[in-house]
Write a sequence for this structure.
């Protein structure tokens, strides 16, 4: 059974930092692209960052570039998202997802991800 479990969310003041972790079991993450997405009640799930299965190349949404860093540890089966200089507009539920490597479809599109975690709330106060 595949499970993705996010942890590390919480409440932080603007300018602060949080580190989210996605712990994966039931699959070999070195065969999967792993992405972080976020969603609010007003918006559809949107891409935040990703790391590719083959070599770990990273990609970021423009809104988080320079502030967020994604990293993977295949040995520990975890993918972290370090979030610095947080802004109130970063408030959302954050989800990690797994997309089988070398399958077609944009790594930025949530519709191409097969497995998802339950989400972790991040709230940034102004």
């Amino acid at each position: 059974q595949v499970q993705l479990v996010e942890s590390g969310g919480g409440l932080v003041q603007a300018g602060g930092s949080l580190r989210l972790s996605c712990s994966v079991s039931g699959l070999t993450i070195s065969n999967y692209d792993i992405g972080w997405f976020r969603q609010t009640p007003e918006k559809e799930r949107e891409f935040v960052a990703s790391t590719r299965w083959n070599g770990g190349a990273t990609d970021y949404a423009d809104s988080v570039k320079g502030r967020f860093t994604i990293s993977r540890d295949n040995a520990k089966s975890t993918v972290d998202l370090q979030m610095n200089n947080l802004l109130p507009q970063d408030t959302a539920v954050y989800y990690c997802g797994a997309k089988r490597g070398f399958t077609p479809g944009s790594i930025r599109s949530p519709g191409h991800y097969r497995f998802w975690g339950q989400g972790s709330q991040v709230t940034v106060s102004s």
